[in-house]
Amino acid sequence: MTGRVRAASAALATIWMGALLTATRAAEAPCAPPRLSDTALYAAGHPGLVDPANRAFSPQYPLWSDGAAKARWVYLPPGTAIDTTDAGDWQFPVGTRFWKEFTFNGRKIETRFLWRATADRWIFATYVWNEEQSDAVLAPDEGVRGIVEVGAGRRHDVPGSSDCRACHGSKRPGPLGFNALQLSTDRDPHAIHGEPLAPGMIDLGTLVRERKLAPVRPELLSNPPRIHASTPLTRSVLGYFAANCGTCHNRSGETTFTGPSLKHSDLSDGEATTAGLLAYATAWQVPGQPEGTSRMLNAATPDASAMLARMRSRRPSSQMPPLGTVLRDDTAIDAVTKWLATDLAKR
C-alpha cells in the first residue's frame, strides 16, 4: 500500500469513526418519553397520582389559552437551586421539569412538558390524552390540529415542538410563567383570569424558605415584586400584557421590538410603561385609520389602538398573541377597552 493510499484510508477511517461517534451520541441524547406516565409526573405504581416531589404552582397572571382550565407542576432536583444572578432571567438547574395540563369541558386534552435535560438542551413535548383518560401519548412534531371544539366553528390545536420553541425561544429557552412577578407573594386580587392559590401550591416564599434560589434574595419577601400602578385596573391590565405579550414585546427576546418592554421584570413602574404604550407609533396599521396615525394605545380613540385591534382579531396575519389561541379573550378585551375609556382617558 502506497503512502498516498494509506493516507486516504486513514482519512476515510477518521471520517467513518466521526460519523459513528456522532450517530452514537445522537442515539444516546435524551429525548421526550413516549407516554406522559414516563415523564416522572406520577408516583411510581400509582397512575394519575402526582408525585409529591412535583410541586403545584399557579402564576398570578395566567396565559390565555382558549379558556382552558390548567394545572401546573414543577420539579427541581434535590440539592439544586435556580440561578437568580440575573433577577429578571432565572436559569434553571439541569433536571428541572415543568408540566402544564389543559382541560376543556371537563376532559383532559393535552399536557405540555418542558425538561432541562442537559446544560445546553431543553426538551419540549406535548402529550395527547386517550379516551379513557388513563394516560397521554407523545404528539407528533407537527402537533395535532383541531383536536377539540372550543367554540362555534373553532377547534383547539395541540402544538408541535416547533410551536413550543416559537414562544419559548431559542436564545435562552425556559418556562414563561415561573418567575419573580408571577410567583410574587403580593398577588394581584384583580388579575384577569386570576386563579386562587390552592393548598400546597408554592410561591416565592416557598422558594426562598427552601433555599431554592441562589442568591437567596430575601428582598423578594421583604419587598415582593408587583406592578406599581395608580389604579387596580392598570395593574391588572399590565399584568395580563406581561403574561400574554411580554415574551416578544421586549428588547431581549427573539424578535426585534423597539417599543416599551412588557417583560415581567421590566414592569415594576406601571405608569412609565403606560406612558410609553400611549406614545408608541406602530408599524402595523389599524384598519381604517390614516397612515402613520396608529399607536399601540390610543385613549382618545380606543378603536384606533393597535393592541386592542389585534387582540380582537383572530386572523392569522394580525391576531395577538400570534400562536396558541383560536378564540378571542373577550374578558381581557373588555378590561382593556374599559381601561382606555376610564383610567387612560383622564391623562
Stretches where pLDDT is under 50 for at least 5 consecutive residues are 7-27
Number of E-type strands: 10
Number of domains: 3
Mean of residue pLDDT values: 87
Indicate the radius of gyration in whole angstroms: 23 Å
Helix content: 10-25%
Beta-strand proportion: 15-25%
Give the terminus-to-terminus CA distance. Answer: 88 Å
| SS class | alpha+beta
| Helix and strand element order | HEEEEEEEEEHHEHHHHH
Could you describe the largest sheet, including whether it forms a barrel?
Answer: 6 strands, antiparallel
Helical region count? 8
Main β-sheet, spatial strand arrangement: 1-2-4-5-6-7
Identify the overall geometry: globular
Structure in a nutshell:
The protein is an alpha+beta fold and 347 residues long. It has eight helices and ten strands.
Describe this entry's structure for a reader.
With 347 residues, the protein is of the alpha+beta class. The chain folds into three domains: 1-30; 36-218, no CATH class; 227-346, no CATH class. Helix content is 25%, strand content 17%. It contains eight helices and ten strands. The chain has helices spanning 3-28, 161-168, 204-209, 219-222, 232-244, 270-279, 306-312, 330-341; strands at 55-56, 69-75, 82-83, 97-104, 107-118, 121-129, 136-138, 144-151, 154-158, 213-214. Strands 1-2-4-5-6-7 form a six-stranded antiparallel sheet, with helices on one face. Strands 3-10 form a two-stranded parallel ribbon. Helix 5 crosses helix 8. The chain is globular and about 60 Å long. The model is unreliable at 7-27 (pLDDT under 50).
